[in-house]
Specification:
The chain is mostly helical and 332 residues long. Among the domains are: 91 residues, DNA polymerase, domain 1 (Orthogonal Bundle); 110 residues, no CATH class. Helices cover 55% and strands 7% of the residues. The strands form two sheets. It has a three-stranded antiparallel β-sheet with strand order 1-2-3. A hairpin with a 7-residue loop joins strand 4 and strand 5. Helix 2 runs antiparallel to helix 3 and helix 4 packs antiparallel against helix 5.
Length: 332
């Protein structure tokens, strides 16, 4: 992985990464920032990164223009790179960027892929084991992003009140969404499995899940409690990349479901390009259809869907209204 290669640089390992961890940014963000900062330093071919202070805005503009014009990256990728460089200059080099005027990548508007309910359920049933079927069920039944699903803790799922609490979602926000009753039994079995696995890990000395440092200080001993364990744990113990020498059980890899769903799409002969995120889109579109079919006010229905998805602005949620109206027009 590129991020791991760049992390071998003494400057990034000893200066950049500690700054990221002081900010308590997620590990995925750490990997992303390390990757882009490493690419930026390599692009300018400087031996001493401090030399990047001089002409900071011009150097950032050159790199962003290179990404858009030569590497033809997407607008979202260019924005992530810019965020990493803003962090690099502000928090590491202590330089405020006054204004950056680079060639911007063209932002393409994509219409979400929506498949019918029967196809969704057929794909979920075609997944190879119960854990993957449960994860896909949460993506479709609760509107979770894949990363949100794999990062669920045991305590985040309430099978009595049928709700799921999503922690540190996009934009570092928490939200509560619905839990389909049909998943309650499978979730109870999954929680029981995690409890049994956790007891065995405690005996072996590896039963402390990763907990952000601030929370670990506030809730002493939380890392070893069952509620804080990952709901979908990895099959093996591994070394924590943020704490060398500390071995613990991490959550399942996102690629596990991605690969399995890709295989299900192929085996079921589905022509649309269905991904894990498609299941979240289907949740929104199908829920909106149900709410409006029951006579719910359209704006009230949109607001409800917006809250479940965690959108900051209802305009983002409006796309599903347009898609459902198009589907209704085709059915007439």
């Amino acid at each position: 992985m590129a991020g791991k290669r760049y992390s071998e640089s003494p400057f990034i390992r000893n200066v950049v990464i500690p700054k990221i961890r002081v900010r308590q940014l997620g590990y995925r963000t750490e990997e992303t920032y390390v990757n882009w900062i490493g690419q930026f330093i390599a692009y300018h071919k400087v031996k001493a990164p401090e030399a990047l202070r001089e002409g900071a805005e011009r150097k950032v503009e050159q790199f962003l223009t290179y990404l858009a014009a030569e590497r033809e990256v997407s607008a979202s990728t260019q924005n992530v790179a810019f965020s990493a460089l803003m962090f690099f200059y502000r928090d590491v080099l202590r330089v405020e960027l006054a204004g950056v005027h680079a060639l911007r990548a063209r932002e393409r508007k994509r219409v979400p892929v929506i498949v019918d309910r029967e196809t969704v359920l057929r794909l979920v049933e075609a997944l190879p084991d119960e854990t993957l079927r449960l994860m896909a069920g949460l993506l479709y039944g609760s509107g979770l992003r894949l990363r949100e699903c794999v990062r669920l803790r045991v305590k985040d799922v309430d099978t009595r009140r049928f709700r799921v609490t999503v922690r540190e979602a996009k934009g570092d926000k928490d939200r509560v969404t619905i839990l389909p009753k049909r998943l309650a039994g499978a979730l109870a079995r999954q929680s029981a499995f995690v409890r049994q696995l956790h007891r065995a890990d405690l005996v072996r000395g590896h039963g402390a899940a990763y907990v952000p440092p601030a929370l670990a200080r506030k809730y002493t001993g939380a890392a070893q409690k069952t509620g804080w364990q990952w709901l979908f744990p990895s099959k093996s113990i591994s070394e924590d990349p943020r704490a060398p020498g500390v071995w613990r059980r991490h959550h399942i890899s996102e690629s596990s479901l991605q690969k399995a769903l890709k295989g299900a799409v192929r085996s079921q002969g589905v022509d649309q390009r269905v991904s894990c995120h498609t299941l979240r889109h289907c949740f929104a579109a199908h829920l909106l259809e149900d709410l409006t079919a029951r006579g719910e006010n359209v704006m009230a229905a949109l607001e409800q869907v917006r809250e479940y998805l965690g959108h900051a602005n209802i305009r983002t949620t409006m796309v599903y209204l347009h898609l459902t109206r198009k589907a209704e027009a085709r059915d007439r």
